[in-house]
């Protein structure tokens, strides 16, 4: 272990913080994709994954699709035009899962074809020479479990909103058309979709025609994507959509929603034009496609999907205006739009480099946040992500890695927030202008092509002359981040500030000792002084001569380093740091450090920040810190701070008050229910009531159960509170309400309600009504509802449900339903209490402990009596009873936590 000593002359004042001057809105952080998907086999015997060989270059894909909404199937015709690359081609092997092939034809004589579960293999009578263009056309039917998703009244969706949508990423396209399904094939495409004439169909690129066929009565929408893109970005959405439109310069913009939801669409669509202008300027490359559509669909597989020129969004992103600034689609819409460049114009060559799609989209969403809502908002987003990443305890994987079972595993925090942080560090080190130039060259050089991480590194090295090997090696090809233990001290005699820095992360084959620039900022009578040091060793001391003791000492004041930093400064420094209006991160860190103290002065400081800090994020964190201090004074400070003009802070304060079990906290929740108009805050206050087993609570929860609200969110909040109260008195009214109002719930909300019902009834002697109601949903065509009902049967603990559950466990193919049913059956068979039943488990443990103590005592008494018998003649015994100490009473609020 070495310990270098540096003596640095502090450079002149550098301060580049821009004060915030904009209203803040928080970005909704929704990942594009997360659903687990399966890959058949490893790509290499080593278990490592690589991009597949390309025997052919795919030139063009043409799809002609007719969805049959009633039967939820589609009839398709796919034509693939291709050219063998280097080897004469005898056999073309296409990815195709569960497609019923009717016919195969082509430009070449086809000798035979074979359809397996996962492929269509076409054998040509003669080999096709390299460079020769050829095509095959396959007509087929599909009843896909993936790739295409129907939303119809038969499935429980609103009658006039019937639609269907596709999902390609990662490898789902093969479930609805035959293809070469890997990201290293780029081709042009066209999609024709035939639907009833009152429906509409949307796909990639340009609408070529919309023609009605007199014979079938169907209207054919013919779309063409004339610029190359990859297979997983081919899209189709069709059904009863309504749209709103706008233009960015000459570029048509449209936003589609299911007909009954169009009234909410403008809230989510509003920012698109401004984002388009910002991204074109920031990226320096014009938007690459001919139009930009966004289509909202029910129960999408994720938050959104960036298909070229036609993004799909989850309908759950729509929001009502009465939630003020609490709900927003800004983050999601910006993320998907950024993908049109990063992911679509250039696409990662294989899934191991997915961060080049997701890290960029996440970072440009953050940059837009900064543009729209100010620098503080952007820093707050980066601060939150940094805490998320550095809070990961099992962080052993590198961002780029080749060992994964399914591509979906690569779509996690490494690709999204950590990828975005890598870009933020690059931008911070290069400076904005140079960074922009590099990104523009990277995009232009690889447009309509594949990229790997080295393509990005090569451009940066070329433009800067510097080596970026170490940067990418430590941040992208190795795992983890620096964990810094830093200390500060001041020597008045020598007038030296000393900062000691130790890298305490566990260094291994996976994790390196990091090397990075780090800025230290001192503020004092001398003004503001910055000095950038290079940290590279395990342990280093740095000395800074200053004219006088600084009032504030800050590490990485502009938040340019991804690291877990412990830097406790003396209490006297926290006050000035907490009120430094030019340093939002300093204020957030001061709030964080103050949250560990309990004295009245600290509470007073935090209360002031909660009431007066100009940035909403600091006010939110101050509220959280008061909650964690958890003294009476902290509660009083929160109770005095409920009148927050910013809804996001108001909700936080209401939520934090809910973490106290006091009469005053209860009164506050009731007062919110009387006065608050914002349903997102009302929902929190409803949940806050759960801790209080008061007669009026039940009436209030039942009132909200029957209330009308956007997405029925107040009823769902009431159900959550009922579950927490764990009172069987709620079973009958809840069951009655669910029977009556099922249609008012979202799939997720209703799923939650089924879970609560099973939970509340689990200790009842008679469970028939609840069991029958839940069983009535095990075949729901809404996936979330079906899974929830299977799980709820396990929770309910009624063995009479086993037979129904077994109909799922007997299924041939692995599925989430089968797994859930198997778990539920195992629970029921073992007559085991569900694992979340803490209250019962606790009671059982206490009962066991008590009987154990009783037995021991009886044994001891017996032993004593035997001893006494042995020593002396028996005397008339008077048994002594000792009052046992009662087990501690747990308040419902604690039980709920
Ligand atoms: Zn994404």
Please give the count of helices: 27
Attached small molecules: zinc ion
Tell me roughly what share of residues is in helical segments.
25-40%
Sheet with most strands: strand arrangement:
5-8-3-2-11-14-13
What is the alpha-carbon Rg in Å?
32 Å
What best-fitting shape do the alpha-carbon axes yield? Answer: globular
* Number of DSSP-assigned strands: 29
Provide the β-strand percentage band: 15-25%
Q: What structural category characterises the helix and strand content? A: alpha+beta
Distance between the termini: 44 Å
Mean pLDDT: 91
For the biggest sheet, the summary is: 7 strands, mixed
Could you list the spans in which at least 5 consecutive residues all have pLDDT below 50?
1-42, 874-897
Give structural attributes:
897 residues; alpha+beta; seven-stranded mixed beta sheet; 22% strand; disordered C terminus; binds zinc ion
């Amino acid at each position: 272990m070495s310990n270098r000593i540096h003596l640095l002359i502090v450079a002149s004042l550098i301060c580049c913080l821009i004060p915030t001057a904009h209203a803040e809105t928080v970005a909704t952080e929704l990942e594009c994709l997360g659903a687990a998907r399966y890959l058949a086999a490893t790509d290499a015997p080593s278990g490592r994954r690589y991009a597949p060989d390309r025997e052919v270059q795919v030139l063009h894909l043409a799809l002609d699709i007719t969805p049959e909404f009633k039967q939820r199937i589609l009839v398709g015709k796919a034509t693939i035009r291709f050219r063998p690359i280097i080897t004469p081609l005898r056999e073309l092997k296409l990815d195709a899962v569960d497609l019923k092939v009717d016919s195969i034809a082509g430009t070449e004589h086809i000798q035979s074809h074979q359809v397996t579960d996962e492929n269509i293999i076409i054998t040509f009578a003669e080999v096709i020479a390299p460079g020769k263009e050829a095509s095959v056309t396959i007509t087929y039917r599909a009843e896909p479990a993936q790739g295409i998703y129907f939303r119809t009244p038969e499935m429980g969706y609103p009658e006039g909103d019937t639609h269907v949508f596709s999902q390609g990423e990662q490898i789902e396209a093969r479930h609805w058309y035959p293809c070469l399904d890997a990201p290293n094939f780029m081709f042009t495409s066209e999609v024709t979709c035939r639907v009833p004439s009152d429906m509409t169909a949307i796909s990639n690129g340009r609408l070529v025609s919309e023609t009605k066929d007199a014979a079938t009565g169907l209207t054919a929408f013919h779309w063409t994507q004339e610029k190359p893109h990859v297979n997983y970005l081919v899209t189709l959405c069709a059904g009863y959509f309504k749209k709103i439109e706008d233009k960015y310069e000459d570029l048509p913009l449209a936003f589609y929603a299911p007909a009954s939801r169009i009234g909410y669409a403008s809230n989510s669509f509003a920012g698109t034009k401004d984002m388009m202008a910002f991204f074109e300027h920031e990226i320096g490359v014009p938007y690459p496609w001919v139009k930009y559509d966004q289509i909202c669909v029910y129960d999408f597989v994720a938050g959104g999907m960036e298909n070229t020129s036609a993004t799909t969004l989850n309908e759950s992103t729509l929001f009502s205006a009465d939630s003020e600034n609490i709900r927003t689609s800004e983050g999601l819409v910006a993320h998907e739009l950024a993908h049109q460049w990063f992911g679509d114009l250039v696409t990662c060559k294989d899934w191991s480099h997915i961060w080049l799609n997701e890290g960029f989209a996440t970072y440009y969403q953050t940059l837009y946040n900064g543009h729209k809502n100010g620098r503080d908002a952007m820093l707050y987003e980066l601060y939150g992500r940094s805490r998320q990443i550095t809070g990961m305890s099992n962080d052993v994987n590198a961002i780029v890695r080749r060992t994964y079972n399914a591509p979906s595993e690569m779509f996690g925090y490494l690709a999204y927030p950590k990828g975005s942080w890598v870009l933020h560090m690059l931008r911070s080190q290069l400076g904005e202008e140079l960074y922009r130039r590099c990104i523009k060259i990277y995009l232009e050089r690889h447009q309509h092509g594949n990229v790997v991480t080295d393509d990005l590194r090569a451009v940066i090295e070329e433009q800067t002359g510097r080596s970026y090997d170490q940067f990418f090696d430590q941040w992208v090809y190795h795992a983890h981040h620096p964990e810094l233990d830093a200390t500060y001290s001041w020597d008045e005699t020598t007038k030296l500030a000393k900062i000691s820095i130790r890298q305490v992360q566990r260094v291994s084959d996976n994790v390196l000792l990091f090397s990075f620039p780090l800025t230290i900022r001192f503020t004092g009578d001398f003004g503001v002084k910055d000095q950038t040091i290079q940290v590279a060793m395990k342990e280093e001391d740095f000395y800074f001569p200053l004219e006088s003791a600084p009032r504030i000492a800050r590490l990485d004041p502009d938040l340019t380093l991804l690291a877990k930093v412990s830097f406790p400064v003396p209490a006297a420094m926290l006050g000035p740091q907490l009120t430094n209006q030019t340093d939002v991160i300093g204020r957030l860190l001061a709030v964080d450090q103050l949250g560990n103290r309990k004295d009245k002065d600290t509470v007073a400081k935090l209360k002031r920040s909660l009431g007066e800090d100009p940035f909403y994020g600091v006010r939110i964190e101050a509220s959280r810190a008061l909650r964690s201090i958890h003294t009476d004074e902290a509660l009083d400070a929160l109770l005095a701070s409920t009148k927050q003009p910013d809804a996001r802070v108001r909700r936080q304060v209401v939520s934090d008050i809910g973490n106290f079990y006091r009469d005053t906290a209860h009164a506050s929740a009731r007062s919110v229910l009387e006065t608050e108009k914002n349903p997102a805050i009302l929902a929190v206050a409803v949940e806050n009531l759960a801790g209080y087993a008061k007669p009026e609570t039940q009436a209030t929860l039942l009132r909200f159960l029957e209330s009308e609200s956007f997405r029925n969110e107040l009823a769902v909040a009431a159900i959550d509170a009922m579950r927490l109260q764990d009172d069987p008195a709620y079973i009958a009214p809840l069951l009655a309400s669910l029977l009556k109002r099922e249609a008012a719930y979202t799939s997720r909300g209703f799923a939650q309600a089924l879970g609560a019902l099973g939970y509340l009834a689990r200790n009842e002697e008679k469970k028939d009504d609840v069991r029958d109601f839940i069983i009535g949903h095990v075949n729901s065509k809404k996936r979330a509802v079906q899974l929830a009902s299977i799980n709820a049967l396990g929770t309910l603990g009624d063995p009479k449900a086993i037979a129904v559950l077994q109909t799922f466990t007997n299924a041939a193919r692995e599925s989430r339903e089968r797994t859930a049913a198997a778990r539920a059956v195992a629970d029921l068979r073992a007559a085991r209490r569900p694992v979340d039943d803490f209250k019962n488990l606790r009671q059982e443990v206490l009962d066991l402990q008590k009987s154990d103590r009783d037995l021991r005592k009886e044994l001891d008494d017996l032993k004593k009596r035997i001893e006494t018998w042995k020593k002396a003649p028996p005397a008339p015994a008077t048994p002594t009873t000792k009052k046992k100490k009662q087990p501690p009473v747990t308040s419902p609020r604690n039980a709920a936590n």
